[in-house]
Amino acid sequence: MIMKKVYHKAFIIGSRKRGRWMKYSDLPGTDERVSVIGLGTWVFGGENWGGADNDAAVAVVKEAIGLGVNFIDTAPFYTDGVSEELIGKGIAGKRDKVFIATKCGLVRENGRIVHDLTPGSLERELELSLKRLQCDVIDLYQTHWPDPNVEIERTMEVLLKFQGQKKIKHIGLCNVGLDLLKKAIKAAPVRTVQVQYSLLERGIEKELLPFCVAQKIGVIAYGVMGGGILTGKYKVQPQFTRRDARKMFYSFYEGEKFTQTNRFIKGLSSYGRPLNELALNWCRQQQGVVVALAGCRDVEQLRMNAGAASWDLSVDEISRLKQMEGA
Ligand SMILES: NC(=O)c1ccc[n+]([C@@H]2O[C@H](COP(=O)([O-])OP(=O)(O)OC[C@H]3O[C@@H](n4cnc5c(N)ncnc54)[C@H](OP(=O)(O)O)[C@@H]3O)[C@@H](O)[C@H]2O)c1
Which end of the chain is more exposed for a tag (fewer CB within 10 A), N or C? Predict the structure, then answer.
């Protein structure tokens, strides 16, 4: 089944200039083809990642295009629009080579981050994103988190209006549960669901992933390297500041959980593959996953992560990995 997905849905092109290969998924319900490894850009601007270099971020975007990584994920929340601005710079003159996915619904209010999917806020956010990205249209517009105060049908109505105005091409949802997704797809064509999915976090396998497969909704996976820990880089417990993503968002870096996670990662070394590539390929080869996002702070990380697309795990390797006790 898994092999069928990989070979049936993806095709291969060569990027001979840099001697690397990229694979592409068909985005269900559309005529779009997106790279199986997508560029994650939460790190751009560095707000939640212990700082980051802006020139390096622009270089990452340019290199991604050269490597055939066309799927670029961002959000206004990422360093308060800086991530979108840096992508705008990186794609200048190359808009037709990339598929831009950004988000809406997390806004800053007097220094606080609040959920806001009201129509007025969506209108404001979309215009700002288009400006920062220097684009006329966004390929995939995703709600970042549900807003408990706004009916999903109301939000979908506004996104459909944006589609009619040709300001966005496709609609996606992030971080939704099954009930909300069921409501949303009755109101508008939802092409993608973006959620955390990795060797360390497999919660979606029970309900959400099978539902997306059945409904032909593409899953975009984030946190595929657990925020970096799945690369095996942390031999001793790191110390992050309060607002660092690895302290406030990912759960693998504290106390006993860190020890358990590292024990699990040690078990992965028997596969004889670079751990970042193992983590990315395990995820992207699951049925229903169309893009495995890889957050990259510099060109070196990007090249390492894009390299995962040049090989596949065997069916046997995938099933052995599936049976490993998670952290
Ligand atoms: N929709 C949502 O709510 C949501 C939530 C989270 C993420 N996302 C999206 O998903 C993307 C990916 O997730 P993520 O960035 O949070 O986590 P991730 O991809 O699991 O980890 C990314 C981090 O790992 C480190 N890293 C990456 N490649 C490496 C390599 N080859 N070797 C060593 N270290 C490496 C880098 O951080 P250091 O250099 O600091 O170690 C990088 O910022 C995000 O960038 C964002 O676009 C969306």
Answer: N
- The domain defined by 2-323 carries CATH number 3.40.120.10: no
Q: How far is the CA of 166 from the centre of ligand 1 (A)?
A: 30
Residues 10 and 36 sit within 8 Å (Cβ to Cβ): yes
Nearest CA residue ID for atom 26, ligand 1: 228
Q: Where are the alpha helices (DSSP H) in the chain?
A: 2-4, 54-67, 82-90, 119-133, 152-164, 178-187, 208-215, 245-248, 255-268, 275-284, 299-306, 315-323
| Domain-wise residue ranges, the chain | 2-323
pLDDT beyond 80 at 113: yes
| 35, 10 Cβ separation under 8 angstroms | no
Pocket of ligand 1 (CB under 6 A): 40-43, 49, 73, 144, 174-175, 194, 222-228, 231, 233, 245, 276, 293-297, 301, 304-305
Q: Whose CA is nearest to atom 29 of ligand 1?
A: 301
Confidence at 10, pLDDT banded by 50, 70, 90: very low
Of 240, 301, 302, the one to substitute when testing ligand 1's pocket (max ligand atoms within 8 A of C-beta) is: 301
Contacts of 173 (CB under 8 A, 6+ apart): 142, 143, 180, 181, 184, 190, 192, 193, 194
90 CB-near residues (< 8 Å, 6+ apart): 57, 58, 59, 60, 61, 62, 64, 65
Phi and psi at 23, nearest 5°, equal: -115, 160
- Annotation says 78 is catalytic: yes
Residue whose Cα lies nearest atom 41 of ligand 1: it is 228
199, two tokens: 């060797």
Q: What is the distance in A from the centroid of ligand 1 to the CA of 119?
A: 30
Kindly report, residue by residue over 153-175, the tens digit of the pLDDT: 999 999 999 999 999 999 999 99
Q: CB 206: neighbour CB atoms within 10 A?
A: 10
